[in-house]
Amino acid sequence: xxxxxxxxxxxxxxxxxxxxxxxxxxxxxxxxxxxxxxxxxxxxxxxxxxxxxxxxxxxxxxxxxxxxxxxxxxxxxxxxxxxxxxxxxxxxxxxxxxxxxxxxxxxxxxxxxxxxxxxxxxxxxxxxxxxxxxxxxxxxxxxxxxxxxxxxxxxxxxxxxxxxxxxxxxxxxxxxxxxxxxxxxxxxxxxxxxxxxxxxxxxxxxxxxxxxxxxxxxxxxxxxxxxxxxxxxxxxxxxxxxxxxxxxxxxxxxxxxxxxxxxxxxxxxxxxxxxxxxxxxxxxxxxxxxxxxxxxxxxxxxxxxxxxxxxxxxxxxxxxxxxxxxxxxxxxxxxxxxxxxxxxxxxxxxxxxxxxxxxxxx
Length: 362
Known about the structure:
Blueprint: H1 3-9, E1 12-20, E2 24-31, E3 36-44, H2 50-66, E4 75-80, E5 85-91, H3 98-105, H4 110-129, E6 132-133, E7 142-144, E8 150-152, E9 159-160, H5 184-187, H6 194-211, H7 221-229, H8 243-252, H9 263-267, H10 283-287, H11 315-318, E10 338-340, E11 345-347
């Protein structure tokens, strides 16, 4: 039977196509039981790479079945047919994904960004507390419900972290994700702490939320890596971002993994905390930060001679001469999924590496 007939037997009326790849596709459908529209990811085991079928798909199914958080796309049902097709019925993000939202409307105001970022951070804390890591956090994987609340999706590269005999998390050696959101240690092919990797991606997402552009140009990975390792970060002056917001982004986009914030520190940062949303930039250091004591303070005052942990330079100096408008997201390459080796930067489509299912633009 075809997909329409199979879904009909399970009580779903097939709708439009939402995305399609070489071995997976996403369809909308109406659930006669739930009485509302859902998204159905259909994966064909016969067409999928062996590595994906044997490792990544079982992980995704296991993790989706255990997650239950208001800011994570709900999974209603998972079933498989005898011919090797897997059907994952999920909550539908009716307002599309965050990337399209920002491309259409431009950068978010800080209050709106704070709300959405808090929802996302809460979802990541929930996962990290379960020792689950996402490893592919990006704006395309953040869907919006009818009220424009964040819903995290696509756990195709997620995994449950293992611990050694002393209880410490073991390092991950699978280099996956999207180059524009990947942490320096991943780009360098260094075994990494996956939770710490997720934090870097969160920093990129928040930057895009409030700036409407990418923090780094991923057209030249080696050059981008050098800039990241030097902790150089530029904010567009036209956005008039608060010092607290810049401070949080800088501490997430920290190349030193021992100084990068943890998820609990992000949620307790003064910019994220509701009680401190009205604080001025001058109050940041006075009130105290949630970050480690080793993190130096830095200023954003124009003309200041005090050295800061992050070089904050005019956005114009960091952009190419033919830069787009500041309110548009530079995303020509960010949807490419890559795998990084020590020898060279290679695309994820090489033999032996799993290809990611299609983006769930639901």
